[in-house]
């Protein structure tokens, strides 16, 4: 089992910045992919960014150049630095860990990000 706890969400004005954190604990494999996903009201959950244990990153087109995902292996923590925020970035942001060679998925409880105009 892997437990994920997100933090860092909040209310910010358009153009502002936030940094989300996700701390993982439990049986974390050395081979894993951590990611951030978001879900706006009435919409499906969508990928925002992922980072592998080797440091390879992937971003949704809508956030490229504005968001940066990173990880600290020693702290089992993944971050999402969000700059130049827009109202359309408003959503609940979820952390996900795809763990081990069997690709077992674990999710955090989510953190709300609200961008006001």
Report what the structure shows.
The chain is mainly β. Helices cover 0% and strands 58% of the residues. The strands form two sheets. Strands 2, 4, 5, 6, 9, 10 and 11 form a seven-stranded mixed beta sheet that branches. The protein has a four-stranded antiparallel beta sheet with strand order 1-3-8-7, with no helix packed on it. Strand 4 and strand 5 form a beta hairpin. It is globular, with a radius of gyration of 14 Å. It starts with a strand and ends with a strand.
Helix-strand layout with pairing:
Layout: E1 2-7, E2 10-13, E3 18-26, E4 32-39, E5 46-52, E6 57-59, E7 67-72, E8 77-82, E9 91-99, E10 104-107, E11 111-116
Parallel strand pairs: 2-11
Antiparallel strand pairs: 1-3, 3-8, 4-5, 4-9, 5-6, 7-8, 9-10, 9-11
The low-pLDDT segments are none
Helical fraction equals: under 10%
**Tally of individual helices:** 0
Q: What class would the helix/strand composition place it in?
A: mainly beta
The topology string of helices and strands comes to: EEEEEEEEEEE
Radius of gyration: 14 Å
Oligomer: single chain
Q: Please summarize the sheet with the most strands.
A: 7 strands, mixed
Q: Tell me the overall shape.
A: globular
Number of DSSP-assigned strands: 11
Bin the strand percentage.
Answer: over 45%
What is the average of the pLDDT values?
Answer: 96
- Give the N-to-C terminal Cα separation: 40 Å
């Amino acid at each position: 089992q892997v437990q994920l706890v997100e933090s860092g969400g909040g209310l910010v004005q358009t153009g502002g910045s936030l940094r989300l954190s996700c701390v993982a604990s439990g049986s974390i494999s050395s081979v894993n992919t951590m990611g951030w996903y978001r879900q706006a009201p009435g919409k499906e959950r969508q990928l925002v960014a992922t980072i592998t244990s080797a440091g390879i990153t992937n971003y949704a087109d809508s956030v490229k150049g504005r968001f940066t995902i990173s990880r600290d292996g020693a702290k089992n923590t993944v971050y999402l630095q969000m700059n130049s925020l827009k109202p359309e970035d408003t959503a609940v942001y979820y952390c996900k860990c795809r763990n081990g060679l069997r690709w077992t998925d674990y999710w955090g409880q989510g953190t709300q990000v609200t961008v006001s105009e």
